[in-house]
Design goal:
Length: about 500
């Protein structure tokens, strides 16, 4: 695989604009520092918002299908550079290359979706109660949209937000995780290539990139000229963003912690369930919001499934994420490793039997944090299972009745994703029904992770309630105006009120 400076040069990035002394960027692959960047000051963030605001004032008047053309060009850039951008993701976030490429594909998919959407920003026409009147809804962009993204999906989640926000007529200010700024720099360069090809209809400043830490995020969140903040990350971060936005009555789209479960029912196809469990629990080294963290297995099949699961965990290829044979890459950093070890210790204290979970030796990766994914068998859903630990730990608990399993699924504070493996129609439909899973995503015979962009993505409770990506999530990036038009020669009042002068 090519080095980071070489890869970035391939995107046309001029690194001298970004280099500095403030932010050392480490690759989780080896732990080495591969770039040191300067951070934006809060004043520079303010200036970027000013530029984004003036860009918005022009961009909102460009017809939406023409705005879609910019996103089409951006999608083309992503198609051309898919391999290289996937490699940057792998270098910087430590995802295996297949997942790095999958992330870029997710960006391409949302671009395609957004291009179609640019001709479908529909409002309703509503029957008026008054003669000679018509009611309708018009959708307008909100203005500058602030996007705060996390290290684990360093580019796709920005693209979900930006592609929709831009076709809706907004401008975007992006504050990526300080753990993955280089991926953001590469993506921004590709976007600017699309802008250059699009021509002068795209005002400069339409998409802004902020490099920095929580101080930059705070400056973005506090700015009254940013009516909407879409933030992905920890529940702790989301609470701070929500509080700051509530203070000034700004809107938020929050995609926070997940603590996702799977129920494996007596009738489940165990071969499929096994594949679903392993991909969802150890993919991205357990660092997806949608990662499977809690597994509820029916008593009658527990002893058939667990040995197979352990056998599969015992032979997982762990190592360099750019090696095509690897399925489990490194954790993002030392802190993630320590949090994993602390969670495992707590699980032991709560009566858990831990399988795996130790540090894995990887030749050349001594400075990285590679682990054997952990399986923890517990007699009941204990306190640690109510927490999201961003690492490959799968807690396993037996259950006796579907009702009990659904109650366990719903007992945690988070509500992002959930799934059931069953071939029993009654069980599947109950799980999806009003008395079933309380999550934003509920799947049957599919694990909780790896959602397609076509559906609305997000979850309930401490996950934050936001919806991004497909379906009608675009409405979150627009404001709705209700219009009543009177084409008669009189002025009847609603509710039959008489008000004669
Ligand atoms: C996240 O983990 O923040 O459904 C997003 C999935 C991916 C997106 C995950 N499409 O797992």
């Amino acid at each position: 695989m090519q080095s980071i400076p070489h890869l970035l040069a391939g995107f046309g990035v001029d690194m001298t604009t970004y280099q500095g002394q403030d932010l050392p960027c480490r690759t989780p692959v080896t732990g080495a520092v591969h770039a040191t960047l300067r951070m934006d000051t809060p004043q520079q963030v303010t200036q970027k918002i000013t530029d984004a605001r003036s860009a918005f004032e022009r961009w909102r008047t460009v017809p939406a299908p023409r705005r879609g053309e910019l996103i089409r060009l951006f999608g083309d850039e992503l198609r051309t550079h898919k391999q290289a951008l996937g490699q940057v993701v792998t270098h910087e976030a430590g995802k295996i290359l297949q997942e790095g490429l999958g992330e870029v594909q997710e960006m391409i998919d949302i671009c395609d979706f957004a291009v179609g959407l640019s001709r479908q920003l529909y409002g309703l026409t509503i029957a008026s109660e008054r003669p000679g009147h018509r009611m309708m809804e018009t959708w307008h962009p909100v203005g500058v949209v602030g996007v705060i993204s996390a290290f684990n999906f360093p580019v796709a989640v920005w693209a979900w937000n930006a592609a929709l926000a831009l076709v809706c007529g907004n401008s975007v200010v992006w504050k990526p995780s300080e753990k993955t700024p280089l991926t953001a720099i590469a993506t921004h360069a590709l976007f600017m290539n699309a802008v250059a090809r699009f021509g002068s209809d795209a005002p400069p400043g339409l998409a802004q990139l902020v490099i920095g830490d929580a101080r930059c995020g705070a400056a973005l969140v506090a700015d009254k000229r940013v009516p909407l903040i879409s933030a992905t990350g920890s529940t702790r971060m989301g609470r701070a963003v929500a509080a700051a936005c509530a203070q000034r009555l700004a809107r938020t789209i929050l995609e926070l912690g997940g603590n996702n479960a799977m129920i494996v029912a007596p009738s489940a196809d165990l071969d499929m369930a096994l594949r679903g469990i392993v991909f969802s629990a150890v993919g991205t080294a357990g660092q997806r919001c949608t990662t499977l963290r809690r597994l509820f297995v029916h008593d009658s099949i527990y002893d058939a499934l667990l040995p197979r699961l352990k056998a599969s965990y015992g032979t997982l290829p762990i190592g360099d994420p750019s090696d095509p044979a690897t399925l489990v890459g490194p954790l993002i950093d030392a802190q993630a490793f320590e949090a994993m070890q602390a969670a495992l210790q707590q699980a032991r204290d709560e009566g858990g039997a831990v399988f795996g979970g130790t540090r894995a030796e990887v030749a050349g990766g001594e400075g990285g944090h590679y682990v054997h994914p952990a399986l923890v068998e517990l007699p009941a859903q204990s306190a640690i299972m109510h927490h999201e630990t961003f690492a490959p730990i799968l807690y396993v608990v037996r259950y006796q009745s579907l009702e009990q399993a659904i109650a366990l699924n719903n007992a945690v504070p988070q509500g992002l994703s959930s799934s059931i493996f069953t071939t029993d129609l009654r069980e599947a439909e109950t799980f999806l029904s009003v008395v079933g899973s309380d999550c934003g995503i509920a799947n049957v015979n599919i694990g909780p992770s790896g959602a397609e962009i076509g559906g609305a993505f997000g979850g309930e409770k401490e996950t934050g309630g936001g919806r991004e990506s497909g379906s009608d999530a675009w409405k979150g990036y627009m404001r709705r105006a209700t219009n009543t038009i009177n084409y008669s020669h009189s002025l009847p009042l609603a509710q039959g009120i008489s008000f004669d002068l």
